[in-house]
Amino acid sequence: MSLVETDWLDQNLNDVKIIDCSWHMPQTKRVGFEEYKKVHIPNAIFFDLDKNSKKNTSLPHMLVEKTDWEEIVSKMGIKNDDKIIIYDNSDVISSCRCWYNFIYFGHNSEMVHVLNGGLKKWIKEKRKITRDLKNIEISEYKGVENKELIKNMKMIDQNIDTQEFKVIDARSRERFEGKIPEPRKGLRSGNIKNSWCLPFNECLNDDKTFKNKKDLQVIFDAYIKDSQEIEIVFSCGSGVTACVLALAYSLINDKYRPCIYDGSWAEYGKI
Fold first, then answer.
1. Which CATH number belongs to the domain containing residue 90 in this structure?
2. Which of 96, 236, 243, 259 is catalytic?
3. Are 175 and 79 found together in one domain?
């Protein structure tokens, strides 16, 4: 199960490692770390999605090298056998990208979860919050890459003809259909040929919790009912909301391991 509820976390605050992975779309002018310093769940450590991504590229949120990941996670004081709960205060449920990163680099998928409803639900329920920063004892985290959980641009291009996997895009239908410009500069409008559009928000309730399994099954059946044996790959604008779909799909398919087109439209849509 990839989700935990606020009640469960409230009862287990001292038994897990908690990560705040709040990230916001650039046009919002919100800064996740500044918000974290003002309010967060007790014991939470901040994960900076921008800083903890690949440096020598113009593409946002690309996976780092394994050695870099080990250093990042070790400095957070997280160990390989830790149970990890990730949350955010974001409209794009950015915690799901951090969830995917941990699974890609070999953390036991049964030991890494996203808090359903995030910080907004936690605060609404009047649970304990703080601005105190947690003291961190550096660990020696070791990663193992699961390279089958990622697709690159060459694989995406080849798949247009071979159709060995199905690409589902988490962006809005307006962006997917090229009816509105992309929020990032230097990108054309449109989509990857033969891909499908499932806006990530359609998997969420109004309060940003995930829809129940029955509703999610109906949603995904419209895309994959006739192609159960085909690998499912998720894409989006910059690799964040693709992971929201990946987590949502994992809720109805216990065997699914999240597979992402890391470059997403930030790479494929370059002018």
1. 3.40.250.10
2. 236
3. no
Domain edge (last residue) among 124, 155, 177: 124
Answer yes or no: do 114 and 158 share one domain.
no
**Domain range spanning residue 251?**
147-268
Flag whether 139 is in a domain: no
β-pair partners for 168: 196, 234
Q: Give the rounded percent of residues in the chain with a pLDDT score beyond 70.
A: 99
For residue range 71-121, what is the model confidence (pLDDT) as tens digits? 999 999 999 999 999 999 999 999 999 999 999 999 999 999 999 999 999
With respect to residue 31, please indicate whether it lies within any of the assigned structural domains.
yes
* Predicted local confidence at residue 26, as pLDDT: 84
DSSP-assigned beta bridge partners for residue 151: 261
The number of domains in the chain is 2
> Does some domain include residue 142?
no
For every residue of the chain, which 3-state class applies, written as one string? CCEECHHHHHHCCCCCEEEECCCCCHHHCCCHHHHHHHCECCCEEECCCCCCCCCCCCCCCCCCCHHHHHHHHHHCCCCCCCCEEEECCCCCCCHHHHHHHHHHCCCCHHHEEEECCHHHHHHHCCCCCECCCCCCCCCCCCCCCCHHHEECHHHHHHHHHHCCEEEEECCCHHHHCCCCCCCCCCECCCCCCCCEECCHHHHECCCCCECCHHHHHHHHHHHHCCCCCCEEEEECCCCCHHHHHHHHHHCCCCCCCCCEECCHHHHHCEC
Q: Is 245 found in the same domain as 204?
A: yes
As a whole number, mean pLDDT of residues 19-27 equals 93
Verify whether residue 98 is a known catalytic residue.
no
- Report phi then psi at 203, rounded to 5: -95, 0
